[in-house]
Specification:
The protein is built from eleven helices and 13 strands. The protein is an alpha/beta fold. A five-stranded mixed beta sheet has the order 2-8-7-6-5, with helices on both faces. A four-stranded antiparallel beta sheet has the order 9-10-13-12, covered by helices on one side. A two-stranded parallel sheet has the order 1-11. Helix 2 packs antiparallel against helix 8, helix 3 packs parallel to helix 8 and helix 4 crosses helix 7.
């Protein structure tokens, strides 16, 4: 029955999310979820919002949440767009800013949704090869392009760019939109949000999934010049006027307001990440420097796919990418200290047996 499909659908290679097996209980270190609960204020707000008013449509402008996000970043509400998770905001951005007749640029090793969006929205794209040390060579990005997009920190490597490198790119790339995906910015990298009022082509996209422990709520946003935000609103209002429901609006609002909770949990994750990285290096692993809530690791003798399989047998899920240049690496999300201690114990056993 595939003859009913649009030919584009038939040729798509969809994004594959991290596995969520249901056959047993696992320690999930494969999808970069925050190991700590959301702010208690978030949970209280969601419970309060779960009332008879659910029969009414939510605010299509997300006014209160936009105001809070604007205040957090020192911007005006007209510089904020809110969507159903950062993936939706990214999809809207591809539609709003990337001309299919021009070539967009992103790293060759990066968030694997980018080529999927490029395919579905018929964008030509060219990948910028990361260096051998997996850093992004900003200086090699061509100045003539239809747009640039990359995560900072990058995924799945965890490596971040300094703000001066981003500003150098913006100074040289003034004729097309530069989108910085800051999904993991809370875990050590420096945000480019302070550059927004200086560069009208800059759009920053964020999610509350990782930093605010709200992967199950779906709340993301973009900040940038008000003309860019107007473009996103035009796309949104042509597809789905109500991107966030009442519960997400209530939870997202309190998440943004509770900066103390964000700071506490982020610091705990950073501390655990650095401790685990040091232990893995002692075991002979190469560990890339990470400013994210995960580590990207490899071993000169032990194969990544075998390690992945052995850990899964022991009830621990990590992410294996069967892709060029990274098919001997594992991405390990940072869990609680107890979870990471068990991970280290099991991986030490595997290393010892080999």
């Amino acid at each position: 029955m595939k003859n009913f499909w649009n030919p584009l659908v038939n040729n798509l290679k969809p994004y594959i999310p991290g596995e969520q097996p249901q056959d047993q209980l696992y320690i999930k270190l494969n999808t970069n979820e925050n190991p700590y609960p959301p702010s208690p204020k978030v949970l209280a707000a969601i419970k309060l919002a779960a009332n008879e008013r659910l029969r009414l449509y939510p605010d299509p402008e997300c006014t209160e949440l936009k105001n809070a996000i604007a205040s957090y970043h020192g911007l005006s509400p007209e510089q904020v767009f809110v969507g159903n998770g950062s993936d939706e905001v990214l999809a809207f951005s591809f539609l709003a800013f990337f001309d299919p007749d021009q070539t967009i640029l992103f790293p060759d090793i990066t968030y694997s949704f980018y080529p999927v969006y490029a395919a579905i929205f018929r964008n030509n794209y060219h990948t910028v090869p990361l260096r051998d040390d997996y850093t992004l060579p900003i200086d090699t990005i061509p100045h003539k392009n239809g747009g640039v997009i990359f995560p900072n920190p990058n995924a799945p490597t965890g490596i971040s760019l300094p703000l001066i490198s981003i500003e150098n790119l913006l100074q040289k790339n003034k004729d097309s939109v530069v989108i910085i995906d800051e999904a993991y910015i809370a875990f050590g990298a420096e945000s480019a949000d302070k550059l927004i009022n200086s560069y009208q082509q800059l759009l920053i996209i964020r999610t509350m999934s990782k930093s605010h422990s709200l992967a199950g709520l779906r709340c993301g946003y973009a900040i940038g010049n008000k003309i860019l935000i107007e473009g996103l609103n035009r796309i949104k209002s042509s597809i789905n006027s109500y991107t966030l429901d009442r519960l997400a609006l209530a939870g997202g609002l309190e998440a943004i307001r509770d900066t103390l909770h964000l700071e506490r949990t982020s610091k705990k994750i950073i501390s655990t990440r650095d401790r685990v990285a040091a232990k893995l290096r002692e075991l002979g692993f190469q560990v890339l420097p990470s400013d994210a809530n995960f580590l990207f690791i490899s071993h000169s003798i032990l194969k990544a796919e075998e390690l992945y399989s052995q850990l899964k047998l022991h009830g621990i899920l990590v992410r294996f990418f069967n892709a060029p240049r990274i098919n001997n690496h594992l991405r390990v999300s940072i869990g609680t200290d107890d979870e990471m201690d068990l991970f280290l114990h099991k991986i030490n056993d595997i290393c010892s047996s080999k």
